[in-house]
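Bug report

Summary: C-alpha cells for Schlafen AlbA-2 domain-containing protein differ between web form and batch submission.
Environment: batch mode, default settings.
Steps: 1) Submit the sequence below via batch. 2) Compare with the web form result.

Sequence submitted:
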Amino acid sequence: MDERSFSELLAGLRAHGADHFTCEVKRAKGGIPATLWESISAFSNAAGGDIVLGVDEKSGFVVTGVDDPAAMEAQVGAICAELEPPVRAEISTIRFEGKAVVLCVIPPIPRDQRPCHRRSIGPHAGSRIRVADGDRRLTDYEVAVLLANRSEPRYDVAPVPAAAVDDLDSDLLAAFLRRIRDTKGDIFRRVDDHRALVMLNVLTRDGERLVPTLAGLLVFGLYPQSFEPQLDLTVVAYPATEAGVLGKFGERFIENRSIDGPVPLMVAECIRVLKRNMRRRSIVSGIFRVDEWEYPEEVLREALVNALVHRDYSESARGMQVQVEMYPDRLVIRNPGGLYGPVEVGSLGTSTVTSSRNRSLLKILEDTPYGDGQMVCENRGTGIARMLVALGEAGMEPPRFTDEISSFTVEFPNHTLLDEDALAWLTSLDLPPLTRSQMTALVLMRNGAILTNSSYRTSTGVRDSRTATRELKELVDAGVVEQAGTRGSTTYQVVRPEVPPTGASHERLSPNEHQVLAALRIEPTSRAALERATGLSKDQVQHALQGLRQRELVTLLGKPRSRTALWSVVQPG
C-alpha cells in the first residue's frame, strides 16, 4: 500500500468513525498489542483485510506513529508464523505526516485450510472470525464445520442402525430402480435390487444386516423423522417485517408449521404452505401484464432442494432444522452449515462448478422423480443460475446469499424490480434497446447498488464474463453508467446529477450515505431493512443515518429505538 492508498483508507475510516470489516487500527505506541494475533486470525478466516499500526482510533484516527518500525515488522511476521496455517502477510512501513506507520495486508486463507488459528492453543480456543469492526471467537460448531471441510464428509452414507429396509417406501424404490436401469446401462440390470441399492448408497451393511444409509432414509423413508426427529423443515409466516412484532390483531405468526417426511415430500408440502400465504400479483412482461405468484414456484423448489441437499448432516448438526421464514417484504431460507469446498458466494450462479458435502444424497436425488415427472435435482451446477433467470423473467430482484460458516442463508426480496416506475425511468433515459439483464442492472444501480462484473452476472443471470463486460461497456458508452477502478477492481454505478435535492446540504456525502439515501428514496424504511438493502453493517448504517440527519436530509418516523420506527427522506417544503 502506497502513501496515496493509505491516505484514502484513513479518510474513509475518519468518515466512517470506526474500524470496519476489512480494516483494524491499533495505536501500538507501547509495542505490539497482545491481541494482534486475533485480528490476523479473524481476517484470514474471512475476506482478508488491512491492519494499521500507529493510528489512534479513540482520538479520531490521529496518526501517532510507532517508535521502532523495523522491530515491529519483525514481531508481526513472527506472529503470522505462529498461526496454523502460517499467514503470508505483506508487511511494510510508510512515512505519513512525518511519522512511521506499519501496514499489514492479511490475505484470506483458502477455505479448505481454515480455520486459521494460534498453533499453541489449538483451533477451538485459537480461531477468530471478523464481524463488523471486531473479532469474535469461532464457536465449537463453526470450528467443526471448517475442519470437516478439509476432507470429504461421509455423513450421508453413514448407516442408520435403528432402521430396516422395511422402513423405506417400496413404491418409491421401485420407481427409482426402474429409472436407474433405464439410464445407467447394463451394470444395474445384472444385479438384484438389494445389490443395486448398496451400489447406489441407498443401503449399506451394519454388521450382518442391510440397513438404510442416512441418504437412503431421507429420500425413500416412510417417515425419516422416526429416527432423526429434527431433520425436517419449519415454515413460519410473520405478520410484520421483523420477527417478534405483533400483527394488527395481536398475532405472532400467520402460520407456524413443522414439515416432516422424505425430501421430495417436504419440498412439495413446503411450496403448498408458502402458496397458501402468498398473494398473486401482476407482472409486466414485455407489453403484457400477467398474474403470477409472488415467488415463482421454480425458484422456491430450487432453493428448498438446495437447502435440504447441501445442509450439514454431521452428528453435531442433526438437532438443527432447515428454516423457512416468510415476511411481508422477503422470504428467507436458512440451512445448517455454510458453503462447502471451493465455492464462494460471489460465484454462485455464474459458474457451473459445484461442490457438495453430501455427494451420495445429491446423486440419489438426481434419479428420484419429484411427482411431476421431473427429477428432484439435476446435479449439474446450474440450479442457481436457472433460479436467477426465473427471477429475472418475473421482473424480480436477485436473491441475497449469506455464508456464515455455521449456516447458509438465501433471502428473496418481495417486490418487482422492473415495476411501472422503473420502466418509466428506463424509458426516460432515451437509450437504444436494452437487454433484460441491462435493464435489471440499471434499476439496481438506480437503487444504490455499485456493481462489478461478478455481481452483474450474479444479479442478472448472465453466465459469461465477456458478455457482462460487453453489456456494461454499452451502458458506459451510452453515458448512463460511470466506470471506476482498473482491471480486477472495476466498479460501475449509475451516473447521477450533481445538483442536490431542494433544501439539502451541499456538503459532499460519503459513499455509505449515498447508498442509504438512495435506498430511502424508494420508501420509508427501518434501519434493519436498510442493512439488508445496502449490504452495510449496523454501525455503518447508523453512522450514515446520523450524518444524513445532521444535514436534514432524512428524518425518523416514530419513537427512537422502536422496532416499528422508519427512516424517511425529508421532502422539499
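Above is the batch result. After comparison, the two runs are identical; trailing whitespace caused the diff. The domain at 511-569 is CATH 1.10.10.10 (Arc Repressor Mutant, subunit A). DSSP finds 19 helices and 24 strands in the chain.
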